[in-house]
Amino acid sequence: MTREAFFVIEGGRRLRGEVRPGGNKNAALPLIAAALLAEEPVVLRNVPRIRDVRTMVQLLSELGASIEELDPHTLRIDTRDVRPRPLNPELCRDIRASILLAGPLLARFGYVEMPPPGGDVIGRRRLDTHFLAFEALGARYEVNRIFRLRAPDRLQGQDILLDEASVTATENAVMAAALARGTTVLRNAASEPHVQALCHFLNRLGARIEGIGSNTLVIHGVDRLGGGEWEIESDHIEVGSFIGLAALIGDGVWIRRAVPQHLRMVQLVYRRLGVHFEVHGEDIYVPPEQPLRVIPDIGGHIPKIEDAPWPGFPADLMSIAIVMATQAAGPVLFHEKMFESRLYFVDKLIAMGARIVLCDPHRCLVHGPSPLHGERLESPDIRAGMALVIAALCAEGTSVIRNIVQIDRGYECLDEKLRALGAAIERVER
Ligand SMILES: CC(=O)N[C@H]1[C@@H](OP(=O)(O)OP(=O)(O)OC[C@H]2O[C@@H](n3ccc(=O)[nH]c3=O)[C@H](O)[C@@H]2O)O[C@H](CO)[C@@H](O)[C@@H]1O
Ligand SMILES: C=C(OP(=O)(O)O)C(=O)O
Predict the structure, then answer these.
(1) Among 139, 77, 149, CA closest to 113
(2) Percentage of the chain with pLDDT > 70?
(3) What is the average per-residue pLDDT within 59-87?
(4) Domain ranges in the chain?
(5) Boundaries of each Enolpyruvate transferase domain copy (predicted)?
């Protein structure tokens, strides 16, 4: 019988001290996939020990890669013995990032057959942009219950306009184009920190990618990629989550190695909720006693918080910002433009006492502050799960959060980190 894990949280404790975020999940996953392109071993440091990474590692191992854990956060990946084999459908369904195996496998073997990916249930997650890019590079594809991609002749560089700035589609296109014949120009490319990390890592292995950080990438195909090492940066979404938590119930919290360069938009948007944090070199300090108050737009208008591709406000911080808004005085409109079902979790916040109107699947109006009380909750996805943990830590009384397997997908040792800050949170397994 499989055991179920849940969090039991006693709200109302003030948090104080310091916390160190894990490596960026959405960087680790494409970097592990990119190891398939390298003809020599690669070493990845600061790899987060989270479920999604374990699944990705298992997928590569089943393909024949040899993966050694040099220390708890360092992987040495050698893919020289990888051969084209059917991919495990259950593992593919577990994570969205399994689709990231398509680009490197296509570039390396000219053929991929794979089951569809899974990932967070936050709305329909289209893959059309991935196939648009592969087709432009010369691949043919069939999409039935499984995806089949064929490019018997080497992929050929092209000038490609992506129909949306999809993160994983950009990563797949870059990996496929890195070994293509000739030059690819990838327009309307995503430029999130993890996309940039992938491009820099590939360059370290010998790829020739220009325009990193912009929305036009120029990829000069090379004949081979060698080995190399890379240190994954801290997860800016985890940092944004801790800032939110510390602003609500912190008595002074330091976040170490917090990649402040990736938090400029977060800082602007959190300011609308009256939340401030200080940057001290690579660290961030969230001061206590923040007067959480929604700052109206010029003219006294109700402000709006919406997500957008980088350098816009990250979609993965919307749920966190919504919980923050429940404790800030005044009204604020949230417009979730990227995912169709991410906002449904606000029903759980309403059950805890939050004053929120879900206007439609994409918009909700939050009017705080409202005291929250403990509830029995279920975590629908990683970020809503983290948002519910924050709400439970703010609430009066005890909350039970089930389905924390979702939270474990993206946050490493969350309960241990929170306990070290003074939170009353226990992981219970039954
Ligand atoms: C493994 C991984 O890296 N997952 C991340 C990746 O998912 P993923 O790569 O799947 O997300 P995409 O960037 O493809 O798209 C996310 C959503 O935004 C919409 N969209 C996208 C681009 C655009 O210009 N306009 C637009 O509306 C898409 O239709 C989709 O509904 O990026 C998402 C957006 O940052 C994050 O939430 C996920 O955590
Ligand atoms: C949506 C997320 O992840 P994935 O794309 O892996 O489902 C996330 O990290 O919030």
Answers:
(1) 149
(2) 98
(3) 96
(4) 5-22+234-429, 25-231
(5) 10-418
The pLDDT of residue 358 is 97
* Of 257, 117, 262, the residue nearest 195 (C-alpha): 262
CB contact at 8 A, 24 and 233: yes
128 is catalytic: no
Same topology, domains 5-22+234-429 and 25-231? Answer is: yes
Residue 423 to residue 414: CA distance in whole angstroms: 11
Best residue among 381, 406, 412 to mutate for probing ligand 2's pocket (most ligand atoms within 8 Å of CB) is 381
Please classify residue 148 by burial: count the beta carbons closer than 10 Å to its beta carbon, then call 0-12 exposed, 13-18 middle and 19+ buried: middle
Whether residue 310 contacts residue 192, with contact meaning beta carbons closer than 8 Å, is answered with yes
Mutate to test the pocket of ligand 2, among 93, 316, 319, 345 (most ligand atoms within 8 A of CB): 316
Tokens matching residue 279 = 């940057």
d(CA 104, CA 42): 15
Q: 301, 302, 250, 243: which is closest to 267 by C-alpha?
A: 243
Tokens for 162?
Answer: 């992506």
- Hey, how many other C-beta atoms are within 10 angstroms of the C-beta on 230? 23
CATH for 25-231? 3.65.10.10
Q: How far apart are CA 269 and CA 241, in angstroms?
A: 13
Q: Encode burial over 117-130: b for 16+ CB neighbours within 10 A, e otherwise.
A: bbbbebbebebebb
Distance from the CA of 108 to the center of ligand 1, in angstroms? 26
Mean pLDDT of the chain: 96
Instruction: Name the amino acid, one letter, at 388.
Output: L
The correct answer on CATH 3.30.980.10 for the domain covering 5-22+234-429 is: no
Q: Which residues contact 71 (CB under 8 A, 6 or more apart)?
A: none
* Contact present, 93 and 62 (Cβ < 8 Å): no
Alpha helices in 18-157 (DSSP H): 25-34, 51-63, 89-94, 102-109, 128-136
Pair 81, 58: CB distance under 8 Å: no
